[in-house]
Amino acid sequence: MKSQLKKYLLLVIALVLPLSSYAQGKVYTRKVRISDYPVCTTMAVLDSGYALTQSLREEVVSRWRISSYEFCTPREYEKLKTRSDLYFLKAEKRDGIVFLCYSKGGDRKNDDPRKEYLEIVALPAVASESAKTGLMGAYIDVIQRFVEDAAASDKIAYAGLRHYNMPGMSRRSPETYDRVTVGPYVMAIDRKSHRLLMFQKKR
After folding, report:
1. Residues 98, 56, 182, CA angle at the centre, nearest 5°?
2. What is the pLDDT of residues 122-137, one digit of tens each?
3. For residue 90, pLDDT beyond 50
4. What values do phi and psi take at 124, rounded to 5?
5. Three-class HEC string of the chain
């Protein structure tokens, strides 16, 4: 009961404060816009067109912790995607590369920042639809950590995954991290903590 009351109060605060600030002409930064993620539902889109879908479902059930979640089909996503009280985790193919994307629902053409679509992070997940997806658990953890960090810092929210580029990577033991290459993107993910240590795009 207490946890439900706390969740309700957080939702009220998350909704009321932005409304008050909007009336005063406040600029809605990315950090402000995603501050309600803990009290909103994340819809994980299960698209049978991607080989990673089964592992995505399994790892969401096993590892998703930053909000409540539900699963939906691509058709259901099309009906729900403009709702600004929902977040979405889905695979998207761009230039031949599959990305695991996390976004806040909304209208892409809405002038009201409270109701406008916002992509929060896009992580290149697999080189092709037939590639192995054994790192899905790490991908899920990387996305969740980025959302938490971005909601706490506009610097991180706007810098994106490159914020995690850490100095001294060359001195780390190769046995401590997985180096993942997806098209022009190169990532290094700590094997134990699943922290993203490097994110670069080759020219």
Report:
1. 30
2. 999 975 444 455 799 9
3. yes
4. -65, 115
5. CHHHHHHHHHHHHHHHHHHHHHHCCCCCCHHHHCCCHHHCEEEEECCCCCCCHHHHHHHHHHHCCCCEEEEECHHHHHHHCCCCCEEEEEEEEECCEEEEEEEECCECCCCCCCCECEEEEEEEEECCCCCCCCCHHHHHHHHHHHHHHHHHCHHHHHHHHHHHCCCCHHHCCHHHEEEEEECCEEEEEECCCCCEEEEEECC
Q: Could you tell me if 179 and 186 are in contact, meaning their C-beta atoms sit under 8 angstroms apart?
A: yes
Report yes or no: 99 and 19 within 8 Å, Cβ to Cβ.
no
Q: Are strands 86-94 and 41-45 parallel, antiparallel or unpaired?
A: parallel
Q: What is the pLDDT of residues 100-159, one digit of tens each?
A: 999 999 988 777 777 899 999 999 997 544 445 579 999 999 999 999 999 999 999 999
Is residue 27 classed exposed, middle or buried when 0-12, 13-18 and 19+ CB atoms within 10 A define those classes? exposed
- For 39, the token pair is 């009290």
Distance of CA 140 to the CA centre of its chain: 8
In terms of Cβ atoms closer than 10 Å to its own Cβ (0-12, 13-18, 19+), residue 10 is middle
The β-bridge partners of 43 are: 70, 88
